[in-house]
Amino acid sequence: MANVIVVGAQWGDEGKGKLVDILAEKAKVVVRYQGGNNAGHTVMFGDKTFILHLIPSGILQDNVACVLGNGMVIDPKALLKEIDELKVLGISVEGRLKISDSANLIMPYHILLDQAREARAGKNKIGTTARGIGPAYEDKAGRQGIRFVEIGRDSRFKSKLDLLVEDKNLYLKHILGQKNGFLDSDQVFEDLMAQYQRIEPFLCNSQKFLAEEMEKGAHLLFEGAQGTFLDVDHGTYPYVTSSNTVAGGACTGAGVPPTKIDRIVGVVKAYTTRVGSGPFPTELNDADGAHLSKVGHEFGATTGRARRCGWFDACMLTDSVRINGFTDLGITKLDVMDGMEVIKICTHYIGPDGERIDHFPHSLSLQEELKPVYEEFPGWKQSIRGLTDFEQLPENAKAYLKRIGELLKVPVFMVSTGPKREETIILGDLFTPRA
């Protein structure tokens, strides 16, 4: 048995879905442990493309169980839509999808609150996906959340919902200044009960299920959403998501003890991207940035928003390694850099007073003033698209990968040479115990 966590090491959108899909071939169970339908995990193989927002990418592998953990916030409407879309594509979730009965729900008022706050913030908005993620986590922390387990088993649930809807309507009206679009509690309840009826067969004590699978010797694969620097504690606060995206979040968000984790994989792009607002020291607003954006098709799978692009930031990623304890690296989108004349890696920063800074500081104002210092590498000026053998890579591409491994002090086990499942170089087996 080996249990592996897959974490985005940057600002999300690193290609975790593809890696999880590949690793799931050897796993028995894949677990999402945080976030909601603000994730967008794209998997491509053959002539098929799947974009998943809630259900783990492992659902595309036969005979793999997929768990939505207790640390998630789940929009029932979005979940049912995703289940139906998979069914149309020939992917059945029956008997394979497990949903924690202690997961919190994203309610319609959470979505309204999210949208109203972003609209009111104007230029100061966080840049959320407007899917109610933040407000749902607020209610969870404030002990006002709704969990699946209480819907069908608590006679007081309707009166609780009535009070919550009334409270949110008042907040929307008097605090956020909304003039219409308020919710009717009876309609919210009726819609929720209809959704719950379809979801109830998937509900279980997921912590107990995972413990039993581990006792049987099953490999568990934990799939994170977003990325390390969107973590609510360790990211570029306040321009972050509302959950713990780092490796430690897998244990709390799935109910699995840290002693059961064997390996932690950091997924990084061969360059850096970010969606939404917030500091970005290596951001490029030139021809190189335009190349990465165009060739990399850098648009969010969830929102369609254009991603900001920049050079690989090894200084920031050194912090990511420290926080997560990565044992292995998966590097994606190396092929996007085909044909570039010069490629750069940020190794440290110069602060506003001219001082050298070798870490990613917590101060937002300081982050915005950092000047990156780069090492330059010659590009390989040829296509590596679809290569599956490391030795076939151009020497300049190998040198670039080697330097990333040296700077981060973590071995590279996977290199993506294209968006499809089969366009991948694998350099090891994560489910084989290390000596």
UniProtKB/TrEMBL annotation:
Keywords (alphabetical) are: Cytoplasm, GTP-binding, Ligase, Magnesium, Metal-binding, Nucleotide-binding, Purine biosynthesis
- In which residues is GTP bound? 12-18, 40-42, 307, 333-335, 416-418
Q: CDD domains from the xrefs?
A: AdSS
**Which molecular function terms from Gene Ontology are attached?**
adenylosuccinate synthase activity; GTP binding; magnesium ion binding
Q: How is the cofactor bound?
A: Binds 1 Mg(2+) ion per subunit.
Q: Which SUPFAM superfamilies match?
A: P-loop containing nucleoside triphosphate hydrolases
One GO cellular component term: cytoplasm
The entry's active site is D13, H41, K140
The residues listed in the UniProt record as binding Mg(2+), with positions renumbered to this chain, are D13, G40
Q: What class of enzyme is it?
A: ligase
GO biological-process terms attached to the record: 'de novo' AMP biosynthetic process; IMP metabolic process
- Name the EC number(s): 6.3.4.4
Q: Tell me the route in metabolism or biology where this protein functions.
A: Purine metabolism; AMP biosynthesis via de novo pathway; AMP from IMP: step 1/2
From the UniProt record, list the reaction(s) this protein catalyses: IMP + L-aspartate + GTP = N(6)-(1,2-dicarboxyethyl)-AMP + GDP + phosphate + 2 H(+)
What residues does substrate bind to?
Answer: A301, T302, T303, G304, R305, A306, R307
Pfam families, from UniProt?
Answer: Adenylsucc_synt
InterPro entries the UniProt entry points to: Adenylosuccin_syn_GTP-bd, Adenylosuccin_syn_Lys_AS, Adenylosuccinate_synth_dom1, Adenylosuccinate_synth_dom2, Adenylosuccinate_synth_dom3, Adenylosuccinate_synthetase, P-loop_NTPase
State its location(s): Cytoplasm
Cofactor(s) required, per the database record: Mg(2+)
Where along the chain is IMP bound?
D13, E14, G15, K16, N38, A39, G40, H41, T129, R143, Q226, T241, R305
Q: How does it assemble?
A: Homodimer.
- Family, as annotated: Belongs to the adenylosuccinate synthetase family.
Physiological role: Plays an important role in the de novo pathway of purine nucleotide biosynthesis. Catalyzes the first committed step in the biosynthesis of AMP from IMP.
Note the PANTHER family from the entry.
Answer: ADENYLOSUCCINATE SYNTHETASE
Q: Which protein are we looking at?
A: Adenylosuccinate synthetase
